[in-house]
Amino acid sequence: MSYVLKGRVIFQLKRLTGAGELGNPYQILGVHRRASQQEIRRAYKQLVKEWHPDKSNSPDAEERFVEIKLAYELLSDPDRRKRYDDKGITEDDFYKRPSHPSFHANNPFEDLFAHGAHFNFQENDITFFHKLSITTRQYDKLLVPKSEKTPHLIFFYTDWCFQCIQTAPYCRKLVDYLEPLGINFATVHSGREPNLGRRLSIHMLPCLVLLLDGDVFVYKEAITSVQKIIEFIRNKMPYKMVARIKTDDIDNFLNGWEDNRVRGLIFEPHTNMRLRYLVIAYHFRHRVAFGFVDSQEIRDRYQVPKDMDTVLLFNENTSYPMASISMKDIPTSTLQHVISSNQYLSLPRLSSQVVLESLCPSEWHKPKKKLCVVLVTSASRGHDPHRHSFRLYAQQSPFNIDRVHFNYIYHDRQSQFLNSLVPEGEIIQPLLKIVVFWRKDTSHLNYEWIDGKWDIEKKLNDTALALERTVGRLLKPSEAPIHEAYVKDLYDEHATGMIGKLMTRIIQYVETTYESLGKEQILAVASVLGTIVFILGIGYLMAYLVGEHRETEGEIGRQQQRRHRPELPAGAEAARTPLGDLQRAGAAAEARLSHDRARPGHAVQAAADTALPSRRVALQKVSSEKNGRVENKTLMFSYVYIERGLKWYTELLRLSLPDETELNINPRNCVGTVLSLNGHRKYFCVFHAKHTENRKRRKAAKSGSVNPKELDCESGAFIGFNSDSSDSDGDVLLQGSLLDGFSNWLDRLFEGTTQRFHVNYWPEFPIK
């Protein structure tokens, strides 16, 4: 304790009085005179770790530590460094206090300095941002790749920005607090790098953004609170990266190492995990799965102190940890060193190219070569005993673990890699066999297969002896595996699928868009969406009210029709139900046929009489045809009583005849007639069972024995309009034959081949 106090006194004396010579700062830090700021900073961090009074046992550690700090302060300031390079000045004259007595007598600020007060003119100096400034190229080439493991805070500023100067003290505090936790801080001059600001959706200056695994999150609030920024970083960390472990979850969590990741348990006296452990979990998330323990039973199980931070690391053996560390406040550097030394299982799986590069690094020189001993298995429970036996052998192996790594691989997932390790002309069944290879570079390796299989049902002594002989021979500098192969990168077994990547990108895009929007933009978007929803709601309400109104009008019309309908015999109502949903044409027929209100298309009306049998037979056939053609929206089916509409029917036919003579129509002959009325274009088509032309009439028409006009199917004379006899043609038409050929006529109607009769106006339909 006395040494630390002594060092602090020396440090303060040198800072305030300028006593003592600093010496050559370049020699103190061990850098050359042309060293960059990054090299100086790197050397300073390394020396501080080495000569820190709490870590070094040297009696000169305090003095050496102060010299290193003063040398770094001089060289990190461009102005002081330039003065030293030009004139050899190691102290800033502005801060040095003269020793002449007259200064003390006449200095009005003596009382302030006597009580330890001073003015910090560098606290709001914008040169602090210039020292940490990066370019767009550095952002793309350095920061983005590093952000996969290390979070980065990026501060955007410009010159002559008063608010940027005001935020300088908070940024200094952020650097002092976050850099020891493993979060890097950088700045970007927006005036010099405008494209980078546009890429990252910088909405204002100053602006602070968080870079995590290539994704950018904009901090929208004012930079006036360090605690809010820390909470912002905590909230943007990957979701559920650190699981909260309770008593019932501990066994499942520790036994989940089959995902090829070590398990880590974090214990803290606090109820919430601190940011330093979140950053550590983010850094090692691909190799270690962390859990924050919230159970006293688990603490008692592993005998964890209550008042200390503790981190336990587990491999395949979940009964006790393979590494542990307990301290009041665990330094980040110590924690990173412990985890990086124990980030792999005792028998890891080669599940990706990154794992292969870490466990089996390429080494060209034979004396330094490292060997990988790999057991080939399948991803099935049946090979678990073989892997367990190989794991026990690896733990008891006599070889140096720094030069020989034991692993296993799934044949069904890495078949392309393993197929490359088959000598030409040979056939090898790789399952449960062992291959030893040495990676010369990233794509070439030398390999050898061990004779025999690692089968626990057979004797393993021969295979183990062959493995030991081969590895011992290959470790010699003059030896190398006999076969050579060109291999591609391993398939990443932990990579997210296409659908998962797409969903992740969509979520990230939505989050990024939301983060880039300000309050004004959010209100504008919400206003537009609210307007659209309001319009759709009003439209739906009006459509609903119109539908209700139409249903009410239809119900009123049906009630009026029932009141004006003549009395039917007993059982007639029950017999009418199979007729379908044909509507009887009444007083609204004229309105349907008017030019102003009728829509383009056809209104198909069937003529019937009030006698139930004939009406029932005719309308049943029309209804069946209607139901079969319901998809055609241009047709509207209905029927009319010929007795009530005879005047309208006669006038319609009279207008269609050339001579417009008076007609004497027999209503009985008109039952079963179907009219297709086009109210928009004012024409109609006629169907009747007697329209069908037989061969005899065609021959008679050709021979000239019969007047062709009388045989004209569309002239109206074919049914004896001018005769009072129901069988004027001598042909008897039965009730079941009223609509013979109606289906074919409808087809002709759709094709447009039926004859059309044009009228100048539609006759009025009788209301009674």
UniProtKB/TrEMBL annotation:
Where primarily located? endoplasmic reticulum
SMART domains in the cross-refs: DnaJ
Q: Where is the J domain?
A: 24-88
Q: Which organism is it from?
A: Phaedon cochleariae (Mustard beetle)
Please list the coiled coil stretches.
Answer: none
Give the membrane topology: Single-pass type IV membrane protein
Name used for this protein in its record:
DnaJ homolog subfamily C member 16
Output the superkingdom of the source species.
Eukaryota
Please verify whether the record's keywords include Transmembrane helix.
yes
Where is the region Disordered? 554-574
Q: Does Membrane appear among the keywords?
A: yes
- What are the subcellular locations of this protein? Endoplasmic reticulum membrane
Listed transmembrane segments: 522-546
Q: Where is the signal peptide?
A: none
